[in-house]
Amino acid sequence: MDSQFDTTVAAYERSMEAMPFREHVEAHSFLNAVGDIEGRDVLDLGCGSGLYARLLRRAGAARVAGMDESAAMVDHARRREAREGLGVEYLAADLADPAAGDLPGIAGAFDLVTAVYVLPYAPSREALEGFCATARRALRPTGGRFVAAVLNPEFCTDPEWYRGYGMLLSARQAPAEGTPGHMRAWVGPDVLDLDFFRWSAAAHERALESAGFDRVSWIRPTVSEQGRARYGDEFWANYLSCPHALIVDAQAGPRAELGD
Question: Do the domain assignments include residue 240?
């Protein structure tokens, strides 16, 4: 299947090192939200080139599987896995189709599902609900957590606000649900141009509830101590006052059986 990420593999792979906010804010905050995963089974939705799948495996997860709609990203991740031998599985699938959560080896097999910048690429309510349904179906019937980094519904629409962090976000100031937006990010000599869709906090929560998640928490990002020491508090002030992304921690209890 075609994806806007098919031609961005190399730049995406380098972005963790080339964009300081990815390491010192995004990864720091996301992994803190995920917490201790020693011995847990984790599915990373929208795994891309495998950046977070590898981090999760190295953090002690017993099993890590990565799923992405971009065949090019999955091929790259598999090649790295062949070299590094971490034991991460990768597969290509349409994440917005709830049937992806019913695939053999995926359905009901995980304690935790993660997703970094997946929900912002839902072009419709049905797709947003589909992503969430895929996550819930992959969790064990007894329940589990879905931790996702999502676009901040109230991100700053000043086109210069995030430029110091290597990116420019553009969208209408008062959009309707699902209004398209665009991100341009500079990764060394390369430029990433990606389209996204804006969804309110309420839209996220409705989609999660529809999928079977009954407790949703919103978490603001923080900066690592290393990031503060290297760049200073002033560097991060604009970003922290209005971050472009937030973290959603959604929890689900036991799944009801038909007829219950």
Answer: yes
CA–CA separation, 121 and 11 (whole Å): 18
Q: Which residues contact 37 (CB under 8 A, 6 or more apart)?
A: 56, 59, 60, 61, 111, 112
SS3 60: coil
- Rounded Cα gap, residues 23 and 44, in angstroms: 18
Domain with 103, as residue range(s), is 9-152+198-252
- Is the model's pTM score more than 0.90? yes
Q: CA 50 to CA 52: how far, in whole Å?
A: 6
CATH of residue 136: 3.40.50.150
Residue 76, domain member (yes or no): yes
**How do residues 215-241 score in pLDDT, each as one tens digit?**
999 999 999 999 999 999 999 999 999
> What is the spatial distance between Cα 184 and Cα 165, in angstroms, rounded to a whole number?
11
Q: Are 91 and 103 in contact (CB under 8 A)?
A: yes
Domain count, the chain: 1
